[in-house]
Amino acid sequence: WYQRRVRVLICFHCLQATLEPLSKEEKKKKKDKKEQRPVLQTVGERGLINTEPQSYTEITKNHKKYSRNHVDKKMFKNDLLGFVTPWNSHGYDVAKTFGAKFNYISPVWLQIVPTAQGTFMIKGGHDIDAGWIRDVRANNTNVKLAPRLIFEQWSMGHLTQVTSSESELLHMVQVIVEFFKGEKFDGAVLEIWRQFGGREKPRLHQVIKAISEGLSAEGMSTLLVIPPGVRPFPEIFDKYDFQILHPYIEKFVMMTYDHHHATGKAGPVGPMDWGLRNILLIMEHEDNDNHRHKLLYGVHFYGVDFRGDGHFDAIVGHQYIDLVKSVKPSQFIWHLKASELSFEYRDNKQIHKVFYPSLRFLQKRVEAAEKFKIGIAIWEIGQGLDYFYDLL
C-alpha cells in the first residue's frame, strides 16, 4: 500500500510539472531552439545569399539552419583548412559536425620556446584533446591534423644561435619531430616568419627547410603561415621566398585579414580586392604560378565593432547575433570592392560601425579561390555562423 501511494504521488507531481505553464522566457528558448534546427535545403536554395539582407531577422532566424543533407558533402572544390582555438569551444564542435568538408584541421595549441639552458621546449601540450582528435578523424579519415606551432620568445640572437650550429639546429628539429610523432599528428603549421619582420631571411629559410625535412622523414607535412605583402602591410614575404620554400612546404597559409590593424581606420577586416592582390603578388614569378595550389587564401570568420572614439573590439558569431538582435539594424551596407557587409548603430552618443562576414561574403571568396585554383584557410571556424558551412 505504501509503495503504491508513493508511485501515485510521484505520478501526480510529474503530471503537475508537465501541465504547469512555461514562463515567457522558457517559451522563447523553446521556440528559438525549434526555429534553429538544421533543415533540408541549403542557404542557396532558401534564397539567403544576398548582398544586403532585407531584414536583420534574415540572419537571426537562420544562422543555425544549415542543411543536414550537406553536412557530409564538400562543396568547395579545393583544399580547406580550419583553425581551431581552445578559447572558442564552438570550433571543436564545428570540426566534428562539418569535418567532411576539411582537408586540414589546425588546433592552435602549441608554442616552441627557447630555454635558459640553450635548449628548446614545446609548451601547450595540456590543451591537446585526444578524444576530440579521435572524433574528428572518425568523421573524416582523410583529414590531416596539423596543429599550429608558433615560435614564441624568440629573439634574433636565438635565430642566429640555432642556425650557426648544426648540432643545435638538429636538436631543435628533433624536439619538434619527436613531439609531433609522439602525438600521432599528421603535420605542423609553422608560424615563424612574422616574428622576425622579414629580417635574416636566409636563416629563416634554413630553419624552415630543416623542420620540413625532419617532419617529412616521419611522414608528416609542413605548412607555413605567411603575412600579406600589399600595402598597408610591408612586403616581408615575397615571391622569391615562395620560390625557395615551395619544395619544402605543402601549403602556405596567407593571413589576408586584420587589414584594419594596419590602417588604424574603421573599415573592412579582410577586403577581397586587397586579399587577391596579395595572391597575385606571389604568383608574379613564373615558376610560382605552377604551384599556386599550395596557397591558402586566409578568410576571417570574426568581425569588428568600430567605435566612434577610434577604438574597436573583435566580435565572434554569438556576439554578432546578440548585437544584431539588440540593435535591430534597419539597413546593411555592402562594400563592393571589399565584398564585406556592415551596419551602423548608436550607443552612448557614439556611432558604431560593425563589419562581420555574411553568406555573400563567403560565396565571393569561394568563387575567387576556385577561379584562382587556390585553397582557403579559415581563422577560425568557431567564430563563424553554422549556416556558412553550406557553402564549403
Describe this structure in words.
The chain is an alpha/beta fold and 392 residues long. 38% of the residues lie in helices and 19% in strands. The protein is built from 14 helices and 16 strands. It has an eleven-stranded mixed beta sheet. It has a five-stranded antiparallel beta sheet with strand order 12-11-15-14-13. Helix 9 links the parallel strand 8 and strand 9. The longest helix has 18 residues, at 2-19. The model is unreliable at 2-15 (pLDDT under 50).
What's the short story on this structure?
With 392 residues, the protein is α/β, with parallel strands linked by helices. Helix content is 38%, strand content 19%. It has 14 helices and 16 strands.
